[in-house]
Amino acid sequence: MSSQGSQYVPLGGQFHRHGLSVHHHPHTGPHAHPEPGHHHEPHGHSHGLVDDSIKRSRAGLRAVGLSLAVLGVTAAAQLAIFIASGSIALLADLIHNFGDAGTAIPLGIAFFLRSARAERIAGLFVVAAIFVSACVAGVEAVSRLINPQTPTHLVALAAAGLIGYAGNWLAARIRSEAGQRLDSPALIADGNHARADSYVSLAVVASAAAVKLGLPAADPLIGLGITAVILRITWESWETVRGRDHAH
Q1: Residue 11 forms part of a structural domain
Q2: 188, 173 in Cβ contact below 8 A?
Q3: Out of 89, 174, 181, 228, which residue is the most buried by the measure of CB atoms under 10 Å away?
Q4: Which residues contact 166 (CB under 8 A, 6 or more apart)?
């Protein structure tokens, strides 16, 4: 076959036409043609890989969400026992645990936004929440000293303290490990806060024991002691957040 003076001598296969072009395949059977004008050029990203900031955001949200669930269950169990027992020591711990759960909101927003500035603000919010919970617990303890009320259901009260200890310890581990791994000052501070709270919860057990021994006044006094510990935690958390903020 010839075309405009050019000789096509196929060694095998076949000629065929696509649009205005005629070309030869040296084989028979199925074959493919690239679409006219379609070229897949190299591009600047890799399929199947996730940006590090997205991974960090997901890990932070996972840690915050899991610790929130743990503290939420803990606080709910303590609330039910407080309604039955009326212990001010338990109330002080309960208020603080609800405050701990609430700090998950700004932390979660910060990780969702993937913003270092938002994390710093969340850290300050954590410190403020701790301070407010200390003030509320202190006021309630003083009020109970002025108007004494002996707690009841002491076994349940002691159980509530143990529940608080376990819940805070688990939440502290989740937050601290994630905070260290992600280098998040807010999460680290909140983890240290929850760990200290786990020991504060043991004071509720001491309150139940004191009332059982005939010392009902010990209950609000222990509540004041818990308030003092919370204030100390407030300062330590502030130092952690401020120190990391200056370092960055």
Answers
A1: no
A2: no
A3: 89
A4: 74, 198
CA distance linking residue 115 with residue 177, whole number of Å: 20
- Note the pTM of the prediction, 2 decimals: 0.65
Those residues whose C-beta lies under 8 Å from the C-beta of residue 146, and which sit 6 or more positions away, are: none
Q: What is the pLDDT of residues 126-154, one digit of tens each?
A: 888 778 878 887 888 888 788 877 777 78
Residue 118 lies in a domain: yes
Residues 107 and 129: their CA atoms lie apart, in Å, by 12
Rounded Cα distance between 15 and 69, Å, is 70
- Structural domain that includes position 132: 53-247
From 142, 162, 146, select the one nearest 90 (Cα to Cα): 162
Measured distance CA(47)–CA(40) in Å, rounded? 14
Residue position matching structure tokens 């338990």: 90
**Burial class of residue 246 in the structure, from the number of CB atoms within 10 Å of its CB (0-12 exposed, 13-18 middle, 19+ buried):** exposed
Judge whether 141 and 157 are in contact, CB under 8 Å: no
Query: Which CATH number is 151's domain given?
Result: 1.20.1510
Q: Distance between CA atoms of 126 and 107, rounded to whole angstroms?
A: 9
SS3 percent helix, strand, coil of the chain, rounded to 5, is: 70, 5, 25
Please give the tally of structural domains in the chain. 1
Question: What are the angstrom distances between the C-alpha of 156 and each of 43, 77, 153, 225?
Answer: 64, 10, 5, 21
pLDDT for 51 beyond 80:
no
Tell me, yes or no, whether 25 lies in a domain.
no
Whether 134 maps to a domain, the answer reads yes
